[in-house]
UniProtKB/TrEMBL annotation:
Record keyword Metal-binding present: yes
Record InterPro entries: Alkaline_phosphatase_core_sf, Sulfatase, Sulfatase_CS, Sulfatase_N
PANTHER family in the cross-refs: ARYLSULFATASE (PTHR42693:SF33), ARYLSULFATASE FAMILY MEMBER (PTHR42693)
Protein name: Arylsulfatase
UniProt record similarity statement: Belongs to the sulfatase family.
GO molecular function, one term: hydrolase activity
Organism listed in the record: Microbacterium capsulatum
Length: 723
């Protein structure tokens, strides 16, 4: 989700000296493209195959089962890790995976699609689409969930860097010469956007001039450093291009102050990624391996407008509002500006800053327009790709994310396997960029590179790009197709379709042929592909008993027990209440918990950042504590708590947790992952139960009538905005 202009080699003002140093000694690509969303880009990067052929026509939150939407990397397409390991490399990965179905990430799942099974010797990170950078919700090491808690001040970007360096050092302790491949997939700067306090302070006040001024300054620098020739048009900041972003000067003072601080947090998170890169480079230099290391820096899609026009300090609530559900809760919980970016706030910058991130292009992540797919690419190899003479390292021709795998294999002198798991492999789609790097000439011609996402279509061919933002009833209807000359107009400001209808027809037909070849059909024009197959459908949810000592239940499995339904939580004890958490589900972005303290039962409910607490005294022996969540109209729950059949708490009405909340999974006997109740966390930490708790049983009840339709709407919004 890093935008094209967010780092200094591409015009950004954010302090990114490590990326700049790579660009100064290596190569920048001014026309590199990814897919509009994350999982497809990652599948294409690792396999060199177009995303639908690699099984990822959409993010790994849907499970329709069609060939282009398997959400499972085929065993006939070797990953970069599998190819390089076959050539003698050690293979490491840290960070975001997001190439495994949600339903296959729990502890009892088939791990065939997990990183270690797809070629990585070691892995550390979150397999989910994103996680929080403080108190990450679920971290996996190799094939096992990490159970040790993160400190309040432990920042995930730094921890991932520590782990990456440790993997390299462990290899070198055992083998001084074996080559290695490290895939470092940062969780930053995906939302919720968080950063270290010192880095946030560094950018405080920097963005008070507003997004219009910052965007203009970035474009000026892009012209100065040669990314675009003088006279290149920039996409206008109109409603059509921005989704309604207001002029900065039209905002009130309070809004300007809030929005500027949101951007300061985002800039600090980008800065943190650059610091991570700087640490890796410094370590490689220290051990004498930098000069002979190929380093690639890029992004999986363009900057995102998921923060909405005003940004948010309640990341999960806003997706419910985007889905159009009738309720009365807010999408932006009031929080002090000083808390933005810290562990207590799950926030995201407003769309106006995403418009800046994607300078000079139009639209955002999830769009097939350039703002969604035009991303930075820097490649450096001091010993093997030294620039000659007056070569400035700028490469201007079209390149696509499928090109990285064949490029890296050729540079490494490694052969792609011809067989994998005893079966012949399929051909990749990408072309090697090595000739482009060495000579500066264009990459070899390709038949045309397609894009496709939820009814959107696009095709790159030569200097032209055909775009169809929406489907009509027939493929033969060309009225939705636009045409752009990306050489003269890289920001898609001038639709020339009317001047060359024959070329439009030719490219539309070429797109259709590419789509059939790449298993793009059926087109997901109405989000019907978000319907789950029976194996993962909500109807198959059964009660689950979780015993004391069990690691936190995985997010998706936890949500199936509670999402858009009534449910009951039954805690079994050995005759005494004791002290500590009985159960906890969620984090600072939203969730609930029940704990015992000083002879009282306390229910804490975090409504997307707004806290509700109820308490009642408990006397005598306790065998069972039963907490009921009864679904009410308007997407609300009525919560009641009973001890051995006697109700102690009742009448607690709260907004339902819908969509991605609760994000952290269910913990029994402690407050796991991110804290639900920060005040309790400050006083008691994880507040592990004293020992009288035996187990907790979750019993899912009746679904609300709108369950199926709402789940599709939530999945639609999550896919469009969240990945």
């Amino acid at each position: 989700m890093l935008g094209f202009s967010d780092v200094s080699p591409f015009g950004g003002e954010i302090d990114t000296p490590a990326v700049q140093a790579l660009a100064d000694d290596g190569y920048r690509f001014s026309s590199f493209h990814a897919t509009p969303v994350c999982s497809p880009s990652r599948a294409a990067l690792l396999t060199g195959a177009n995303p639908h052929r690699a099984g990822f026509g959409m993010v790994a939150h849907a499970d329709p089962g069609y060939p282009g939407f398997r959400m499972l990397l085929p065993t006939t397409l070797p990953t970069l890790a599998e190819s390089l390991r076959a050539n003698g490399y050690a293979t490491f990965m840290v960070g975001k995976w997001h190439l495994t179905l949600e339903s296959r990430m729990h502890d009892g799942a088939d791990r065939a699609s997990w990183p270690v099974q797809r070629g990585f010797d070691h892995y550390f990170g979150s397999m989910d689409g994103f996680t929080t950078l403080y108190h990450p919700h679920r971290i996996v090491r190799d094939n096992t969930v990490v159970t040790e808690p993160f400190r309040d001040d432990e920042y995930l970007t730094d921890r991932l860097t520590d782990e990456a360096i440790s993997m390299i050092d462990a290899l070198r302790a055992g083998d001084e010469t074996r080559p290695f491949f490290l895939y470092f997939a940062h969780h930053a700067v995906h939302g919720p956007v968080q950063a270290k306090p010192a880095d946030i302070e560094k950018y405080r006040g920097m963005y008070e001039d507003g997004w219009d001024r910052v965007r203009a300054d970035r474009f000026r620098r892009q012209i100065e450093i040669g990314l675009f020739p003088p006279g290149t048009p920039i996409s206008p900041s109109t409603t059509e291009n921005t989704g309604g972003v207001p002029r900065w000067d039209d905002l009130d003072t309070a809004s300007k102050e809030l929005f500027a601080q949101h951007m300061a947090v985002y800039a600090a998170a980008v800065d943190g990624v650059d610091q991570s890169l700087a640490r890796l480079v410094a370590h490689l230099k220290e051990i004498g391996e930098y000069d002979n290391t190929i380093i690639v820096f890029t992004s999986d899609n363009g900057g995102t407008a998921e923060g909405g026009l005003r940004g948010t300090r309640s990341y999960f609530s806003q997706f419910v509002l985007e889905a159009g559900l009738p309720h009365d809760w807010t999408r932006d919980v009031e929080r002090p500006l000083d808390e933005l970016g810290g562990p207590r706030v799950h926030g995201h910058y407003p769309a106006g800053w995403a418009h800046v991130s994607n300078t000079p292009f139009r639209s955002y992540k999830t769009s097939v327009h350039e703002g969604g797919v035009h991303t930075p690419l820097v490649l450096s190899w001091p010993a093997g790709l030294r620039r000659q003479g007056g070569d400035d390292g700028l490469r201007e021709g079209f390149a696509y994310i499928t090109d990285l795998a064949p490029t890296l294999l050729e540079l490494a002198g490694a052969q792609r396997p011809t067989r994998l798991h005893g079966e012949p492999v399929e051909e990749a789609d990408g072309v090697s960029l090595v000739p482009v790097l060495r000579t500066g000439r264009e990459a070899e011609a390709r038949g045309g590179q397609y894009l496709a996402l939820v009814g959107q279509r696009a095709l790159f061919h030569g200097r032209h790009k055909a775009v169809s933002p929406a489907l009509r009833e027939s493929d033969d209807d060309l009225s939705t197709w636009q045409l752009y000359d990306l050489v003269a107009d890289p920001a898609e400001t001038n639709d020339i379709a009317d001047s060359d209808p024959e070329l439009v027809a030719e490219l539309a037909e070429r797109w259709r042929r590419e789509a059939w070849h790449n298993t793009v059909f059926p087109l997901d024009d109405d989000f019907s592909l978000f319907v789950q197959r029976p194996a993962t459908d909500l109807e198959r949810t059964l009660p689950v008993t979780i015993r004391l000592g069990t690691p936190t239940l995985e997010r998706w499995r936890s949500a199936r027990l509670t999402a858009l339904r009534s449910f009951v939580v039954e805690a079994e004890l050995n005759g005494e209440l004791g002290e500590g958490v009985l159960f906890s589900h969620g984090d600072q972005g939203g969730g609930y918990m029940l704990f015992a303290e000083a002879g009282e039962l306390v229910l804490s409910y975090n409504a997307y950042g707004v806290m509700h607490r109820s308490r009642a005294a408990v006397r005598g022996s306790v065998r069972r504590v039963t907490t009921r969540f009864d679904a009410l109209p308007g997407f609300r729950w009525a919560i009641s708590v009973a001890v051995d059949g006697r109700e102690l708490l009742g009448g607690v009405e709260v907004p339902m947790m819908v969509g991605m909340a609760p994000f952290a999974g269910i913990s029994i006997g402690f407050d796991g992952a991110g804290p639900v109740d920060w005040d309790l966390h400050e006083r008691r930490g994880a507040f592990r139960h004293s020992g009288s708790l035996r187990s907790v049983r979750y019993v899912p009840g009746a679904k609300i009538p709108e369950n199926h339709e709402v789940m599709i709407a939530i999945d639609e919004i999550s896919a469009r905005l969240l990945d």
